[in-house]
Amino acid sequence: MERGPGRPSLQLVQQAVQALYHDPDPSGKERASCWLGELQRSVHAWEISDQLLQIHQDVESCYFAAQTMKMKIQTSFYELPTDSHASLRDSLLSHIQNLKDLSPVIVTQLALAIADLALQMASWKGCVQTLVEKYSNDVTSLPFLLEILTVLPEEVHSRSLRIGANRRTEIIEDLAYYSSTVVSLLCHCSCRPAQLHLFLG
């Protein structure tokens, strides 16, 4: 698991993730953890995480990728050029929809990533309304939609996000403006709890 100067292969990353979770040797787990930690801090983590989520080979690699994506958005959002923000948003929304049945912890990590992206992506106006209109009519999408809408207000006050007071105020006002939309969605969900329960577990 030697660390080269360039981008590691997906196969190497997957091997490291498997070692982290399944290597019976504690020293092997520690080496994998250190190597993956270095990867998470590198600029290559964006593309690798996106590809791991796209191929979704196993739960472990998807969780690592979702967690990495959340961490990168929280701490290294400045690494991305502004013109890539929209494609990252679309990619994350695609991932959470495709992986919604794989594991609740993966859905939570992706929901946090989407919420943190929305908070830092000034060009994404009316994100609450956009998400509700896009997913509220599909019962299979309601669990992850509600997860995003749950963590979004919480993340507004997160100290780990590098956003100024003005942006926080803007988001809080945006959430307040669309609060009736969210309430309507919750009322809509309460009208069909049996169906929703099947997906929320």
UniProtKB/TrEMBL annotation:
A biological-process GO annotation: protein import into nucleus
Pfam families: IBN_N, Xpo1
Highest rank taxon of the organism: Eukaryota
Domain Importin N-terminal: 35-96
GO cellular component terms, semicolon-separated: cytoplasm
One of the record's GO molecular function terms: small GTPase binding
Sequence ranges assigned to domain Exportin-1/Importin-beta-like in this UniProt record: 104-190
Name under which the protein is recorded: Transportin 3
UniProt source species: Lamprotornis superbus
Lineage: Eukaryota, Metazoa, Chordata, Craniata, Vertebrata
